[in-house]
Specification:
The complex is a heterodimer of chains A (111) and B (112). Chain A has 111 residues and is mostly beta strands. Helix content of chain A is 0%, strand content 59%. The chains are: A mainly beta (111), B mainly beta (112).
């Protein structure tokens, strides 16, 4: 998976609790992305980062925040999880913003 | 609005039966088209990038082609291990960050 790890790989949580997902890369790539994948919707971009402390919103960013304090780590936070955020979350990295390489994913269930 | 449509949604083939998957797109100023393979429970795996109409890329039994309106992923003499969901994606119109719009994918099943 191109030197990308995601943690946790699986998480079950309750509505209203905060959740943080971590993406870690060893490739020193500039760009990092968070996607969610849902049946019938495909992959949708949540947030992305184009450098340390440089982030921007994707198409489904409501209810999510991100932080990138180091090149290798990109965190996705759900401040107050809702059932509609039950999904599989993928992190991706890209050296120059062209080909993106994906991590193994985190399956999140919000009860 | 950028759109990527993949067809068919699902395709079932017998081993050795060649076929093609389609990815049509509406985006102004295409800056590349990407194909990925995704196995169940895993992240998408990068396959190809195509940049201009007429370009072709090959990898084992897969060949990707690009026209001004669509891309095809041709699968020649498929094997059961080619079973997966195949995704295509294009960068958003405008901008320089290569945010991608993905199609919903084609689920390919190859029976022995």
């Amino acid at each position: 998976d191109a030197g990308i790890t995601q943690s946790p790989r699986h998480k079950v949580t309750e509505t209203g609790t905060p959740v943080t997902l971590r993406c870690h890369q060893t490739e020193n790539h500039r760009y990092m992305y968070w996607y969610r994948q849902d049946p019938g919707h495909g992959l949708r971009l949540i947030h992305y980062s184009y450098g340390v402390k440089d982030t921007d919103k994707g198409e489904v960013s409501d209810g999510y925040s991100v932080s990138r304090s180091k090149t290798e780590d990109f965190l996705l936070t759900l401040e107050s999880a809702t059932s509609s955020q039950t999904s599989v979350y993928f992190c991706a990295i890209s050296e120059e913003g062209v080909e993106q390489f994906f991590g193994p994913g985190t399956r999140l269930t919000v009860l | 609005e950028d759109q990527v449509t993949q067809s068919p949604e699902a395709l079932r083939l017998q081993e050795g039966e060649s076929s093609s998957l389609n990815c049509s797109y509406t985006v102004s100023g295409l800056r590349g088209l990407f194909w990925y393979r995704q196995d169940p429970g895993k992240g998408p795996e990068f396959l190809f990038t195509l940049y201009s109409a007429g370009e072709e890329k090959e990898k084992e039994r897969l060949k990707a082609t690009l026209t001004k309106k669509e891309s095809f992923l041709h699968i020649t003499a498929p094997k059961p291990e080619d079973s997966a969901t195949y995704l295509c994606a294009v960068p958003h119109s405008g901008g320089s960050n290569y945010k991608l719009t993905f199609g919903k994918g084609t689920l390919l099943t190859v029976n022995p």
